[in-house]
């Protein structure tokens, strides 16, 4: 038996074992992902909240995505991480900085949950973190694979950042 | 001392408010006052954005026109007919850039104007259609599950909101309305 025939048989065996990937199978996977989506609780009374998330990606995976407001660190988003932060209702300006500063203006209303996604774009020297408005559907699709950054972790991170200044 | 002054001013304010309410209570009843209806905060409204908006050309703080798409109803009665106009505001606009940064646009509904009464709005959601029987709390919850609290439109390139785009919002506070004409029943309601 030639090497090519062995390869062909091996491929067929794997295909038979795994079975055909059909559209309903893909839909089933998506449904399963939606079932395991993270459930975000309502914000505290009188406040709104933002779910900051960064889907896992090979692009710029070593880079951080530090989200700030008025220079103060809200939290850093590593690859595949998310955190939830409550805010007073009103206008808020979030920034993330690397080669350039990316700004996101938001108006937060009490009782509402907002979603902000961090992605890493291409820069001249290094990747450029970009924070952009997103939605629940996008978060739900990714959330099962994301890891929560706890309040304790965020507080430690903020204290460390404040000490640097 | 400061706290005392604050307490005194709070008391004075309280008295003023009480007087204001009681003067309303003791005012002679008029036909208008009898007809007054209070639309509760968070009451859903169906609107449309009557101006085209774009992530490249829209500016933060820019006001744009909105219009009441379906009548505001309460207990099966039309309180405010469709067509009332109002304004929204661009909260965030960023054009698409090289290196994969998509256009971004966040807008908010501010108010509708009905015969001189401003109806303050909040919780704008893009694209939800609440005409006829769909204008219910359930439809609002369903739309909340689909989109986020703001109207967010993001594509690979620029974001375009065409004129006439439907959206939903909610009243941000109780609004007292004195209808100018007879109140009609909502179409299709007994």
UniProtKB/TrEMBL annotation, chain A:
InterPro entries: DUF2846. It comes from the Bacteria. Residues 45-123 form the DUF2846 domain. Pfam families: DUF2846. Keywords: Signal. Residues 1-27 form the signal peptide. The keyword Signal applies. This is DUF2846 domain-containing protein. It comes from Sphingorhabdus contaminans.
